[in-house]
Design a protein that fits this description.
This protein is an alpha/beta fold. The chain has a single domain, classed as 3-Layer(aba) Sandwich (Rossmann fold). It has 5 helices and 6 strands. β1, α1 and β2 form a beta-alpha-beta unit. The chain starts with 6 loop residues before the first strand and ends in a 13-residue tail after the last helix. GO terms for molecular function: oxidoreductase activity.
Length: about 210
């Protein structure tokens, strides 16, 4: 099934500035190809190339480029965070994105729902050693906390062998399990976004969410 109206924004949270080669950029491009192949529209932002100020507000003042990126996040139906693994953790850029998204906890839509309730989030993690599962768990928890919905198997990843130097971008071909994980992420994210568009979450009552 194709989607003709959905939009996706992939946030490449590499520490490398463009045009330096980036494994996260490669994986983001592969995912974007999957989304556009199913009729969605979207793009990739290399966040490190923007001046995203530290803080937990929607706008941190002069020079802060988060507001323009935030506008693109709010326009997208699906947001995918792609991060490398450094010292067993997500990149500082990915952490900065999560911190800035904290401001959305106080924002609501016209019906009174948290504004991110209608949006889907997914993740992609790369590294040369173990850590992808923990980073995926941390990202999914944080994204769910601020209001995103994460689809089944909404995380793809690749970890190379421990103590070796091969990067994802240097592999002769993409491993079949990664291709399968990418395809599942794309299909399930689009499916979930369609469902949320047709049947949004209920408006919370004054005493909390309706049950």
């Amino acid at each position: 099934m194709r989607s003709d109206e959905q939009t996706v924004l992939l946030l490449n949270c590499t520490l490398k500035h463009a045009p330096e080669a980036s494994s996260c950029q490669l994986l983001a491009e592969q995912l974007l190809d999957g989304f556009t192949g199913r009729g969605a529209e979207g793009g990739i932002v290399r966040v490190v190339d923007l001046d995203v100020a530290p803080g937990v507000e929607a706008d941190m003042g002069d020079g802060d480029e988060w507001p323009s990126l935030r506008a693109r996040i709010l326009e997208a139906d699906i947001v995918v965070i792609c991060t490398p693994t450094w010292l067993g953790h997500m990149s500082s850029v990915a952490q900065r994105v999560l911190e800035r998204l904290d401001a959305e906890l106080s924002e609501t839509d016209d019906a009174g729902r948290p504004e991110l309730f209608g949006k889907v989030a997914a993740t992609a993690v790369l590294g040369n050693e173990d850590g992808a599962h923990k980073i995926t768990a941390d990202l999914h928890q944080a994204l769910n906390d601020v209001g995103f919905t994460v689809p089944a198997q909404g995380g793809t990843y690749w970890n190379g062998a421990a103590m070796e130097k091969t990067d994802y971008k240097d592999l002769p071909e993409t491993p079949e399990p990664v291709l399968q994980a990418n395809a599942t992420l794309v299909a399930n994210a689009l499916h979930l976004a369609r469902l949320l568009a047709r049947d949004p979450y209920p408006v919370p009552s004054s005493g909390g969410a309706d049950v």
